[in-house]
Amino acid sequence: MAPRVNEGTSKKGMNRGAWTHEEDQKLSQFIQLHGAKRWKTIAIKSGLNRCGKSCRLRWLNYLRPNIKRGNISNEEEDLILRLHRLLGNRWSLIAGRLPGRTDNEIKNYWNSHLCKKLMNKNNEKARAPAQQQPSPPAKEASRSEPREPTTTSDENEGTNGPVAAALNPPEINFNVNELFDFSMEGCHGLDWVNRFLELEEDGLMNSERR
DNA sequence: AACACCGGCAACCGCCAGCAC
DNA sequence: GGTGCTGGCGGTTGCCGGTGT
């Protein structure tokens, strides 16, 4: 997509809107020299008239090395779907399972593509004779407890709107927080996700065989 | 050709946790 | 313990291009 026109400044006279090529270069060069930490300092010292948050976002989502953009494969899509069923809207955790993908990209992909797909699927199911009772909503994981999460399935029709309404996890009914220690999460704490996905795959295979 | 509408996505915003002092 | 700062996260906004009428 064509970049947004870079216009307008914030209250404090900061640049806003789309990043220019020049700004990207400045930021990349500065980070290569000084590392990606202390974003506020980076924002000031690099001479970019941007806030630290904006610099961080730009770096993480676009300038970082080894970033993959676009062309989400079927495998990746499948993984996103399954991880979302498990984790809810915890995009950063989901992104952690997809090398080179960012939480922002996954979130956007979900909201624009997968959400609709699921809605369609569910509509089809709804039209079919209601043979199976919807299982009671499982409490989803919240970010290591705090932030009364956006995605407790209890409130599926509420805070998460159509997205959550589209998701009624039929086969997974447990409280992830009860089973896993989220204090261990992070790139090394994701083994349990791998294990879960393996188990889930086995489950799917078995149910398909039946 | 002109306009309206819609979808995709980059960027922003607000909230919260963790840390230092 | 209180306060301020910083970074991380998820939700939301708004621009732009594509498509339909």
Query: Outline, from the CA principal axes?
Result: elongated
Largest sheet, in brief, is: none
Reported by name, the CATH topology of the largest domain is Arc Repressor Mutant, subunit A
Rounded to an integer in angstroms, the radius of gyration calculated over CA atoms is 20 Å
Q: What structural class do helix, strand and pairing data support? A: mainly alpha
| Known CATH architecture of the largest domain | Orthogonal Bundle
Number of helices: 9
Topology order in helix (H) and strand (E) letters = HHHHHHHHH
Key phrases:
210 residues, Arc Repressor Mutant, subunit A, 2 domains, disordered N terminus, DNA-binding
Question: How would you describe what is shown here?
Answer:
This protein is mainly alpha-helical and 210 residues long. 51% of the residues lie in helices and 0% in strands. The protein has nine helices and no strands. The longest helix is centred in the middle third of the chain and has 25 residues. The protein is elongated, with a radius of gyration of 20 Å. The N terminus is likely disordered. The structure holds a DNA duplex (21 and 21 nucleotides).
